[in-house]
């Protein structure tokens, strides 16, 4: 995923995307979006030390669960990108569902760490958005990488 | 031009990896519904359509996609698109 997808047009302000995210604490995992184009997106999230999952994962030894890392990649890499791509056709009734993930994990992420997610669109057709997504830590080391797909359907009949 | 038999063979090859009900797949007919009978989910139905596009070098539009719920409908759509080429 070395291709620089962010050369085209940069947007400075992404609050219009973040404000449309259907999540809230403690399950909102998008702090900042850095760049978004038709073809991809980049954003980051910092894990607060008091995040709920550290209490049990693991006992007395907090490590960010892979399921949560996957969720961070899905929220930034697929849902935020999908919101951007759907643009005006997005409504409160838009249905969002993760439909498949295939992720390999390389490095652990500890409390207070910041991770950056980069996602490249493979396709967005018939309401299905499939992306190649990777996560790196602040040292630039690969944390995890894979593909995530979701359905994003603007349901105007609901 | 491929016969219906040949189309079904190609289509079955495409559908196979996404099928969750093997028994229904063995007894596939034109009336077999991808989602209800073969238990393919809607996301994988998209993959089937994209694989169909590639295999037959055709383009499936949104309206065709919405009709493409059964094996028979898929065969009809593929035949139509091939004829229009």
TrEMBL record, chain A:
Entry GO MF terms: lyase activity
Membrane-spanning segments = none
| InterPro entries membership | FabA_FabZ (IPR013114), HotDog_dom_sf (IPR029069)
Superkingdom of the source species: Bacteria
Stored Gene3D superfamilies: Hotdog Thioesterase
Q: What Pfam families does the entry give?
A: FabA
Keywords for the protein's UniProt record, in alphabetical order: Lyase
Protein's name in the database? 3-hydroxyacyl-[acyl-carrier-protein] dehydratase
Q: Which organism is it from?
A: Spirosoma endophyticum
Q: What is the lineage of its organism?
A: Bacteria, Pseudomonadati, Bacteroidota, Cytophagia, Cytophagales
UniProtKB/TrEMBL annotation, chain B:
Domain Carrier, chain residue ranges per copy = 2-82
User: SUPFAM superfamilies annotated for this entry?
Assistant: ACP-like
Q: Under what name is this protein listed?
A: Acyl carrier protein
